[in-house]
Recover the amino acids of this structure.
């Protein structure tokens, strides 16, 4: 049976993916998400509302049990206002455009206040199972803008660990997000792009997509909410937003948050 459903939001990345993909295929199928990949290894994630907006997410109006309608060899057909995946037809014409770019200028201006709020988070409770010295070296290098050491450590962290987004990549992602706040936009942009460029080819397709997006200064909705809570300074809001990030994957959210906090800790120790 064909299921028809509306998409409620997507990003410019998603629009470009739909407009410029000639030979896409299904990469992963989960109960509440489906990842597509095109001939340039660009990802489009079709996700349920509970996952929400992300740099390359197409968000549906309601949850769909993807394995019921799709298999890895299902045909993909892209039309002007429709995306057809196996027995699933997604109406894309009325989807709202969502920007994955946080307000980096405001966050950078409030970096000192943010640093003081982060001191209350239990950093040690979500440290990844990765070489401590390597994590410390990378975090310090990011905080002092040492590009050479940052790139060397990033190459060692990229792809390190198990899963679709290995722990080393998640740590890199969080650390780069911290760099966008700590440093000026120009410095952060150069640092983030360089790290993403060396790390992305060394890991999985999905993890590479996340690293490239953070290299452009993009983040998912849970990080947007976390940043807004840091700006507000409300400890209850910060804890709620932190818990949402920690709930991502088995350890992905925790590993990314560890990277984020570690860079700020290195900045504080300076």
């Amino acid at each position: 049976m064909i299921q028809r459903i509306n998409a409620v939001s997507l990003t410019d990345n998603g629009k470009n993916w739909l407009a410029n993909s000639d030979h896409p295929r299904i990469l992963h199928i989960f109960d509440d998400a489906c990842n597509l990949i095109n001939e340039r290894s660009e990802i489009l994630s079709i996700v349920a509302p509970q996952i929400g907006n992300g740099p390359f997410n197409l968000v549906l109006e309601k949850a769909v049990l993807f394995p019921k309608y799709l298999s890895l060899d299902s045909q993909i057909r892209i039309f002007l206002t429709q995306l057809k995946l196996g027995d699933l037809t997604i109406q894309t014409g009325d989807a709202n455009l969502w920007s994955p770019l946080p307000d980096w200028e405001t966050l950078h201006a409030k970096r000192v206040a943010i640093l003081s709020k982060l001191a209350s988070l239990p950093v040690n409770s979500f440290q990844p199972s990765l070489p401590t010295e390597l994590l410390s070296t990378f975090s310090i290098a990011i905080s002092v803008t040492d590009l050479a050491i940052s790139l060397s450590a990033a190459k060692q962290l990229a792809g390190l660990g198990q899963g679709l987004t290995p722990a080393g990549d998640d740590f890199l992602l969080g650390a780069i997000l911290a760099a966008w706040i700590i440093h000026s936009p120009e410095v952060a942009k150069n640092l983030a792009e360089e790290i993403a460029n060396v790390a992305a080819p060394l890991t999985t397709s999905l993890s590479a997509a996340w690293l490239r997006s953070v290299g452009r200064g993009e983040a998912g909705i849970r990080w947007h909410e976390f940043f807004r809570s840091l700006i507000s300074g409300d400890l209850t809001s910060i804890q709620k937003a932190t818990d949402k990030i920690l709930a991502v994957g088995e350890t992905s959210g925790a590993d990314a948050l560890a990277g984020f906090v570690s860079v700020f800790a290195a900045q504080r120790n300076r």
